[in-house]
Amino acid sequence: MILIVVKYRVKPEAVDGFLDEVADFTAATRAEPGNLWFEWSRSVERDDEFVLVEAFRDGAGEAHVNSDHFRAGLASMKPLLKETPLIVSRVVEGEGWDRMGELTVDE
């Protein structure tokens, strides 16, 4: 699978409405057949930083970046950002989350 983590630094005036602004992009990406997950969170260290963790099945990344909603999503985000986002994008084994072996909880 393709595992991607992106950090977005958002302008102060756009922080409160950022997730609303990316809602259509988020919904469209989650509806892609090759999307495994597309999850936003907010940094606990920086008030203006949002972190996106996303994953796609092998071969589905190209369809994602070539989609109309991808281009529209980036265009709508760009004026809200303070700087170019930071990204880690890697192909990894598997197609989902695994349990952490080093920290198990009796359920």
UniProtKB/TrEMBL annotation:
SUPFAM superfamilies found in the cross-reference section: Dimeric alpha+beta barrel (SSF54909)
Annotated InterPro entries: ABM_dom, AI-2_Isomerase_LsrG, Dimeric_a/b-barrel
Pfam family, one: ABM
UniProt keyword annotation of Oxidoreductase present: yes
Residue ranges of every copy of the ABM domain listed in the record: 2-92
GO MF assignments: monooxygenase activity
Keywords: Monooxygenase, Oxidoreductase
Annotated protein name in UniProt: Quinol monooxygenase YgiN
Gene source species: Nocardiopsis terrae
